[in-house]
Design brief:
Blueprint: H1 2-22, H2 34-41, H3 43-49, H4 54-66, H5 86-98, H6 109-126, E1 145-149, H7 152-167, H8 171-174, E2 180-184, H9 191-198, E3 206-208, H10 222-231, E4 235-242, H11 254-264, E5 268-271, E6 296-300, H12 301-304, E7 312-316, H13 319-323, H14 356-391, E8 396-397, E9 406-411, H15 415-428, E10 434-438, E11 441-447, H16 455-476
């Protein structure tokens, strides 16, 4: 059977790819032009003639893998995209082949059962009441709820939509009132302001919260800004805090913010897309102190929990706002029927939904919670060691002590020099790092996320940065 042989050949190629990446035999990143890649893949030919199977498919995959960014490479330190566990990747294959669109239970009972289990696992870790297995008892008592979505952006959007509908239930049919605002620090992910535009609050009505020089909410100033908002006749849809901020990896004071929101009955939303993974580590859990005071939280399993793209969890303390978020009319889906399971379609914007829980569960089950915890603590420890090493260098500056696996630093020189160094690193391809603005200055930024990155890789990166800076300075002379 051609499928069996093709599948085996592809798995063999991926095994070689993994070895080449982890051993640094190939570069971490290989950026070429779109036209160059298209021509080498022969896209036009196959589109016209077909026949992408057997040896043809084998050659195509080999070429394709040569142009990919190798997340398994120890030099990959650029972005918050998890290095997928191989077992989790196999789940992606299973999900793609079975193609169970499990938003309604009858289209994916196995996938739905796993997602239900995972949501309850996460709710329990936060300290919230899990969903009852018997859906006939749903909402008879107070309990949490959640859903897996295709990414943190969609999860954050859904959470803010639930908060808006809770505050202004008439908004779904009559439109959003003009006096609604969202409170969030400027260090929030751009999806917060983007979501405000989508749900009708308006991007200009995202009120920036006072922050320190590192973008963390100054909790002592919250009351003043809240009273100012109230005096203007405005209502707060939600207050958003970071756990952790995308640019810096720093956490807001969730406990103090949670108390503030609870006292004033403000919906407290935590964007924990990157940092809520600390739920899986006793050592890192204090970073999330007060998380149970939130009304909603987002966690991306495809970041620090080594799950293949995409898999984000939206979790709510109270199921009712999520259950009332979407009401559907479609006689071919919604009618009296035998229902031994749960339809997640009522929890999400999506109508067709992949079995995202399978790859999340496969990864967790392959590593075990102990393995996940060790990985998280290993990356955090290495980031702290990197900070200590870099901050001691007289020609480097680190603006803060990292709380996660994200570290910003800069070498002595202009903002343009930092960007030039990054461009040159990308062209060489052995190290893939990113960059961000902080305190009105440009910094280089690393995200230590590959389980194969070691301290010597950090040392070699800094040597390369120093060498490139020297070359750039000589060129200017």
């Amino acid at each position: 059977m051609s499928f069996t042989k093709d599948a085996r050949d592809i798995i063999d190629q991926l095994s070689v790819y993994l070895h080449q990446s982890r051993s640094k035999e190939k570069r971490a990143v290989n950026l070429q032009t779109i036209r160059h890649i298209q021509e080498h893949l022969g896209l036009e030919q196959y589109l016209c003639d077909g026949g992408l199977s057997g040896e043809t498919l084998n050659r195509f995959v080999e070429t394709y893998l040569g142009f990919t960014t190798r997340l398994h490479h120890p030099g990959f330190m650029a972005h918050q995209v998890g290095v997928p566990h191989p077992t989790g990747a196999l789940a992606s294959l299973i999900d793609g082949f079975t193609n169970n669109a499990m938003a309604i239970y009858e289209m994916g009972p196995a996938a739905s059962a796993i997602e239900f289990f995972l949501i309850n696992t996460l709710l329990t870790k936060i300290g919230w009441v899990p969903m009852p297995d018997d859906i006939t008892q749903r909402l008879e008592t107070d309990h949490g709820a959640g859903v897996l979505t295709h990414g943190g952006s969609l999860a954050n959007l859904t959470a803010l939509l639930a908060a808006r509908n809770q505050l202004a239930p008439e908004a779904r049919e009559g439109g959003t009132p003009g006096n609604l605002v969202i409170l969030a620090p400027e260090s929030s992910h751009y999806i917060i302001s983007k979501s405000a535009g989508i749900i009708g609050v308006g991007e200009k009505n995202v009120v920036p919260l006072p922050t320190d020089d590192l973008g963390r909410i100054i909790t002592e100033k919250l009351d003043a800004i809240y009273e100012k908002i109230r005096s203007q006749g405005k209502q707060v849809v939600a207050l958003v805090a970071n756990a952790c901020a995308t640019g810096t990896g720093l956490y807001d004071d969730l406990n103090a913010i949670g108390t503030f929101c609870s006292d004033r009955r403000i919906w407290f939303h935590i964007d924990g897309a990157h940092g809520a993974c600390a739920l899986f580590s006793k050592k890192m859990r204090p970073l999330l102190h007060g998380v149970e005071k939130a009304d909603s939280i987002v966690l991306d399993a495809h970041k620090m929990l080594r799950t293949p793209l995409l898999c984000a969890a939206l979790l709510l303390k109270n199921a009712r706002p999520l259950d009332c978020n979407f009401e559907h009319t479609a006689s071919y889906l919604f009618h009296d029927k035998l229902q031994p399971g749960f339809d997640f379609i009522g929890q999400t914007i999506e109508c067709t939904k992949a079995g995202l829980g399978l790859k999340f569960y496969f990864t967790l089950a392959a590593l075990g919670e102990k393995g996940i915890s060790q990985y998280l603590e290993q990356t955090q420890a290495l980031t702290l060691n990197a900070h200590e090493f870099i901050s001691k260098a007289p020609d480097f500056d680190c603006p803060y002590v990292p709380q996660s696996n994200i570290l910003c630093f800069r070498i002595t020189g202009s903002d343009d020099l930092q960007l030039e160094i990054r461009d040159r690193l990308m062209a060489l391809g052995h190290y893939h790092i990113s960059s961000t603005m902080l305190k009105d200055r440009r910094y280089l930024r690393i995200v230590i996320i590959s389980p194969d990155t070691r301290f010597e890789d950090i040392e070699q990166l800094i040597q390369e940065v120093r060498k490139l800076a020297h070359t750039a300075e000589n060129k200017e002379i």
